[in-house]
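ugh ok fine here u go
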Amino acid sequence: MNTSLAQSYRETIQVTFPLSRSYSKGQAIYKQDQVSEGFYLVKKGSLKLQKMLPNGLQTILKIATEGEIIGEGDFDSSVPRKNLSYAIALEDGTLIQKLDSAPNLLPEIKSHLTQKLIDRALEASQRHERLISLDAEQRIKSVLKELALKIGHKYGDETLLKINLTHEDFALLSDSSRQTVTKTFSTLKRQGTINYSRNRILFRNLENFKP
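structure:
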């Protein structure tokens, strides 16, 4: 997306969808199985998309961060859809902007939003591939590296990931167990690969961090 298109996107979103709302940590943006109100743009902060499965277990579908599109809907149709998951803010001040169905969107903007939805489908496919090709420890490391590359802050060779996820959250996100997450984190810390404290994970050298 070039600079002029990115600027056009921001300006059009601001004019067409002026309403946004701030959410506190743990607050739900929308709930699973409720009729969807369309799409939402994450303007600031992060959230988790958590799904209750038919067997009563839960999973985390993904972590959404600034610039990502969440929610269920169709810009070209008014057919009602239900939300597939709960969207829950991970930090105070998470800013969400509702994107109503809008036929007057510029074609370039609509194309950009469509690409965001394609990216979501690709992420789901990659997660399935990870599940069938990696063991639990490798999946946990893969999730850690993906998040660090996505929202980590680089300081020389080190990368700092700040995110409000518990070991249980990491387990749901990596399709593993909380015990395996705790064991993996402890092993990585003992090896000097990472250091971690509450909501902070420091990677000594992300380039050499292998799942």
